[in-house]
TrEMBL record:
Annotated InterPro entries: DUF7344 (IPR055768), WH-like_DNA-bd_sf (IPR036388), WH_DNA-bd_sf (IPR036390)
Native organism taxonomy: Archaea, Methanobacteriati, Methanobacteriota, Stenosarchaea group, Halobacteria
UniProt protein name: DUF7344 domain-containing protein
A Pfam family hit: DUF7344
SUPFAM superfamilies to which the protein is assigned, alphabetical: Winged helix' DNA-binding domain (SSF46785)
Length: 113
């Protein structure tokens, strides 16, 4: 009985990590950028995401916004994605999707019934 409870608890923690990883718009955007490229640096991710976000508001200072996105990715979003098992950070500074990350981003982009 204790083993079943432990397995259920592990599954719950795994699901919590997954949903936390997918909860933020910027984290989902990072997964989509990584799907389009095999690997990216934090700077590459920040430029891609920052450009998309800044395009929605003509008054945004694109460079300042991209710097803010880079800091948020580095300190907040990428650690959550790593903990969720959706991305890996390599020693060379690049970020890649894991198999679980690729599955998650494909699931996100499936049409809703």
């Amino acid at each position: 009985m204790a083993t079943t409870h432990a397995l259920d608890s592990d599954r719950t923690r795994d699901r919590d990590r997954l949903f936390r990883g997918l909860a933020a718009r910027r984290r989902r955007a990072a997964l989509r950028v990584l799907r389009a490229s095999n690997a990216a640096t934090v700077v590459d991710l920040a430029e891609a995401i920052g450009t998309r976000e800044a395009a929605a508001d003509a008054e945004t200072d694109r460079d300042a916004h991209t710097s803010a996105v880079e800091a948020a990715l580095h300190h907040r979003h990428l650690p959550v994605l790593v903990e969720a098992g959706l991305v890996d950070r390599r020693d060379d500074g690049s970020v890649t999707l894991t198999a679980e990350g690729r599955t998650a981003v494909e699931w996100l982009d499936e049409p809703m019934p």
